[in-house]
Amino acid sequence: MSQKWYRLDTAALIFPAITKRDWCNVFRVSAELSEEIDPDVLQEAIRDLKSRFPSFYVSLHKGFFWYYLEESKEDVRVQKDFAYPLTFMSRKELHENCLRVFYYKNRMAVEVFHSVSDGRGGVIFLANLVARYIERKYGVEIPKGDLIRDFKEAPRAEELEDSFLKNAAEKASSRKEETAYRLHGTKDKSGFKHLTTGIVESKRLLDVSHEYGVTVTSFLAAVMAESILAMQAEERSRKRQKPVKITVPVDLRRLYHSKTLRNFTLVLNSGVDPRYGAYTFAELCSTIHHQLRANATPQNMAGMIAANVQPQQVVALRLAPVFLKNFVMKLVYNDSGERGGCINISNLGNLDLPEPMLTYVKRMEFIIGPQLRYPNNCSVLSCGGKTYINMIRIIQETELERQFFSRLVALGVPVEIESNGG
Question: What is the pTM of this model?
C-alpha cells in the first residue's frame, strides 16, 4: 500500500527552502504533570494518536518540483529530553520524522518542524497527547469537544486542508515595509539556546492590559517595543535610529472559521518610528493596539494571503525545478521575510483544558526558536491561571530580558523568573 502524502501548505513552502545547517524552524510545546512521566505509557499514547492526527506523523521529502510531506515509515520514538530545547533538525532527521516527543521527570514535550503545523495546531496536538496519556495512565476519561478529540475517530477533511488557498483575495497586498531596527549581540558559538521564562498571574496581566484599554498581546508588544526603544536609544542618536516594530503572528482560524491543524498564521509588524518623537507607554499601547486591529481584518489578511498564494500559481514558477524555486524563495525572504520587525511575540492565548485534566496538569508552555535573523524571540501561553512568557536567544547578552521583565514589574505585573542557566 502506498504511503499517504501531503502537499506543503502555503506557509510551509518557505521553511525547507531557507533551512540552513545551523538554523531550522522548529517550535516546542510542553506540559508539566503532577507525577513523573512513564515513557512506556507515553509511547503507547503516541501510537494511539497516529491515525487521528496523521498530518503530524510525517517526514519531509524533496521532489523535482516541490518538497512534500509523506506519512512516516519510522515510528515516532519517545526520547529522554537532553541538552536544550529546539536543537537542530537535520535533513536526515526530517527525512525520517518531522516530530519529536520528549520526556524528563514530570515534563513531556513535543517539537514540530514548522512545515507541519503552527503553534495553535501544535498545542492542540499536545493537549490531545496529554489527554490520551492521562486516560491510559490513570483510567480517567477526558471529555471530548473542540480541543480534545476522540482518538478513535477518523481525521476530518477540514483539519488537513490548506486554508490559505480557500481564503486568498483576488488582489495581493504589497510586501514592502521599511527596515526595522535589528537586535544584535555576541553569538554563542556553541549553539546553546538561552531560555528565560517569566511566570505571571494571568488575571493580573489581563487587568493591567485592560487598564490601558488593550489586549494582552498588544500590551506585551508595547512593553517589548518600549524595551527595544530604550536599547536603541543607548547605542545611536535619534537621527540614526530605525523603526521599532514587533512581529505578531495572527491565527487566521478565528477570522475565517477554519479548523485546519496545518499552518494558518500570518504575521503583522506593529510599532513606531522614534525619529518622529518620543512615545509614552500609553501611546505605545494605543498605537500598537489600533494598528493590529486595523490590519487583522479578513479583507486585509486575504490580500496578504494572496501575496503568498499567487506566486505559486505562476506557470513558469510551477514548472521550475525545486532548486530554482528555493533560490527564488530565499531572495524573497531575504528581501521581505524578517526586515519589517525586531522580534516575534507569538501569543497562543489561554488554553482551556477540560476540568479532569487540571488535576494532573501543572503547567503548559510554548517555545519558538530564534528566527533566521532575529537573535531573540518570545512566545506566550496561558493555562491554569498562569501565563508563561518564554524569551529565547542565541546571543550572550541578557539586556532585552532585563529590560522587558523589569518593565513588566514596574507596570504592576509581578514576575517569577526561571532560566535554563545559560
Answer: 0.94
